[in-house]
Predict the 3D structure of the following.
Amino acid sequence: MIVTGQIPPGSRVTENDIAAKLTVSTPVREAFNRLERDGLVTGRPRQGYVVTEFDINMFREAFEIRELLDGHATELVAAAATDHDKARLRAMLAECERLAAIPERTAREKFQELEVGIDLHRVIAEISGNVMLHGMQCGILDKCQHYVWTELLWLDEWKIARDEHAEIVDAICAGDASRAGTLARAHVRGSRDNVLRLLQAKSDYRNFLANAS
């Protein structure tokens, strides 16, 4: 709900409210602890939590780190992927294509494609065999998820993301570590630049309205 904007930045949320809305109880506190660790909420004593406002510095730092991790993980996988690993990655691409082909798909179905696309990067890190890299990659992807959703939804970058993922997997399956790493890093930079472009457009529009009034 935070990632898709159903709970916007600055909103106050409590464990009781979320437990009632989702009809769950036990996992809520643990979930909030993880959200706070991932930088999506900030705990306030006796007040619950507040959804984190957008931080341009955190955004830049997250994508800089992600570019390094993605590139290195992809190079490792391209050099050592088994037939099972390759089949696993291709199955994830096929699932994205299946979700994309659903006519008049809902926001939930779009979010499912987002999750599969992000999980592709998690799986690549997992297959790399570097346990620490995998853990770091999962943490940074949690921080980036909201920005990726913004890019895909508002800039309609779904097909571009699918095509770029397919190119990365093709390079991995071909054992071309150099090309795979280059494509992975370019993919992350492109996503970062798209979000910055969108944010600049929103800022320009707000300034235009302020000056016009």
Notes: The first strand starts at residue 12 and ends at 13. The helical segments are 15-22, 26-37, 56-80, 83-100, 107-127, 131-155, 158-173, 177-212. Strands lie at 12-13, 41-44, 48-51.
